Amino acid sequence: MLLKEYEVDPIYIDLALVLYLIFLFSATFYRGDGKTSDYNLMPFDFLNYISEVNLSTFIAALLISVMLFVPGGAYLYIKRIKFAYSWQILLSSSLVIELLQFFTKRGSFDIDDLLLNTAGGCLGFLLAKVVHKRITHEKQTTTTKLSH
Question: Is the pTM of the predicted complex or chain greater than 0.90?
Answer without folding.
Answer: no
